[in-house]
Predict the structure.
Amino acid sequence: MVIEFISVGTEILLGNITNTNARYLAEECAVLGLSNYYQVTVGDNEERLSDAIRTALGRSDIVLLTGGLGPTEDDITRETVAKVLGRQMYEVPEIHQQIQQYFERMGAKNPSSNNWRQAMVIEGAEIVENHNGTAPGMIVPVDENKLVILMPGPPEELKMMFEESIAPYLAGRNQQVICSKTVKICGMGESRVAAALSDLISAQTNPTIGTYAKGGEVHLRITASGTDAKAARKSIKPIVKEIKERFGDKVYTTRESETLEQHVVSLLKRRNMTIATAESCTGGMVASTLVNVPGASEVFNEGYITYSNDAKHKLLGVKKKTLKNEGAVSEACAREMAKGAAKAANARAAISVTGIAGPDGGTKEKPVGLVYIGCCIDGKVWVECYHMNGDRQKIREITVKRGLDMLRRCIRQSGEE
Amino acid sequence: MVIEFISVGTEILLGNITNTNARYLAEECAVLGLSNYYQVTVGDNEERLSDAIRTALGRSDIVLLTGGLGPTEDDITRETVAKVLGRQMYEVPEIHQQIQQYFERMGAKNPSSNNWRQAMVIEGAEIVENHNGTAPGMIVPVDENKLVILMPGPPEELKMMFEESIAPYLAGRNQQVICSKTVKICGMGESRVAAALSDLISAQTNPTIGTYAKGGEVHLRITASGTDAKAARKSIKPIVKEIKERFGDKVYTTRESETLEQHVVSLLKRRNMTIATAESCTGGMVASTLVNVPGASEVFNEGYITYSNDAKHKLLGVKKKTLKNEGAVSEACAREMAKGAAKAANARAAISVTGIAGPDGGTKEKPVGLVYIGCCIDGKVWVECYHMNGDRQKIREITVKRGLDMLRRCIRQSGEE
């Protein structure tokens, strides 16, 4: 079954708000096994909204409208749907009363007369309660196969209504089960990942493999649909296994909710290690990313931001000779920074970053984007050299990803020895 | 002139990502005086994409497509636009070479063959350079009145290209002069800012005032349109003056491109000060935000991330007695951290942060969201206490904003004395 979303609201067309509802609904409908081929945004304009509704009814089974159910004059979704379907509207006394009570609870004594428009319902519609606001939703059967759904625009009203009422309704109608599994890969670009899977991707029907670039990582989502949940889950397994074999230790997790920093923090916890950070061009971003993880304090006590050469020498013991002969952006400096940080913090693990984030400061030998990352685990030091692309911010963000990924690999390696 | 957006990407239809590009483009196009009546999202499917392009060309003057220009097989925007317009495609050797160079810089020797598709251009198109990635954009005149624009989907590529090339192009085409001025406010929520301006906002026609909440700040954009640039600019001035009077030192800048961290770094530069950072719950985010600013090295040499009590004592000289009696999250600790950081780094200015970011660790006396921020300028120390709302990540982000805002106020104050 195909579902189409129509988001109604001039504030979206003016860029005043981001349409997060569309993403929420898309994700939820995918899980319900509904296909979503079109998402359309139109303003609070009767002609264009009517047009969008008619087009959607022509090509999709379910048309889900969000927004334009509010109390102000420019909220015209209800009336426009009724007109397009050739239906009458009538007032529901219970809703009128609920609106009255809602305003009393909120301490507002005289709701504006426009508010009573929210008690008007389209003939033949099933009324859907709104437990987070005053405008009810509606499910309007058009004919045997087609359906129009109206939902309020405010995200907290929409989400609660979808979870409580609309999702169960759609699931019952669709009789489909969808299962999916995520594989997260670090250290390879999306195009290389896709190329390595092209045989699987081009042969796919059910399950399918989707590739998604996510800020320096590539996430693969394997999705199977069917009427039997167990069979769907079983059909995903061999594909996940095959992917893991192809990408080896570039796969860092198959848990949908696990981030790279969470993975690194749990690795450190499992190995009973504390870690110190020593950062130059990232200026605290590596540490701050580790601290994203609740409970990071179990593995992280202190970090050093050594932006100047003096600080690298004073806080981390990088040799003045190294700074003079090799420069601050060098393999030797990254090595001494990592070793020095571990020592200064009395930590078993340390990560160091030194590089040129730009836009100025690059030379022919050491261009903008050149970054050295060092990892020290129990006294052993690895250093890797990277050439990053992009602006200052992007170079620093990707450096953090590469650093955490390297840390993960080094901790694993040192554990195997 | 009417512009329509078509976002291309199955990942949007599956709800894997939020379409933030549409909002960005909507906001920018509104400023350029373009009308946006429709935003459409379709997947990487030739038939449906062709259909969307044809529909858009029938009802809008400019069709702006984003996404689907990447290297993988399912990126079909280029080819589909060419087919719909009945145009040939040809390879541009310069772009081929740029892609080659890009991969060499990235240290990847053998880009997959799919990458070369990004060097293919639609006949008659103006090529738009992509300074943040490999896929170029295109401006394709259809006839005297209609235009198709192709832009890459990744937000950082799209934004840079829009600012550098597409916005100037569209502004020239529209022959409308739009002038705007931004006033940036820190330390007040959007609803309070809007309430303080309600008389101006409800009376507005041209110029208009827009309020935008931007991660802990509120930006006001005053926009005037017309055919005469000088008159438009002149009409903005009294409004900006009035706003500055109403909000006083809560206004930190009226420069569109100046961020709070840039403002703080230039204040420090002007006062010839260096700054040190001492962070607990933010774990390096304050330092990292300062380092966002190119040239931050002139005012920032070193920072300390003191997540544990030991580190606070060892690196910053916070008294063990203070930690024991008052706790790490206390006015006294923030004070000693700021003073200690300035001393350890031999810096005239320092900022310290200590707080409870949650989700665990809160008590009745010291709940999650309690944050102390200290500023030390030439030996004088200020400490402010905040109660932040939101999840761990949001509390830390807002703390950084409040910290930089406080720093700005303290530097100014100390200069006036």
Chain A touches chain B through 91 residues (CB under 8 Å). The first helix of chain A runs from residue 10 to 13.
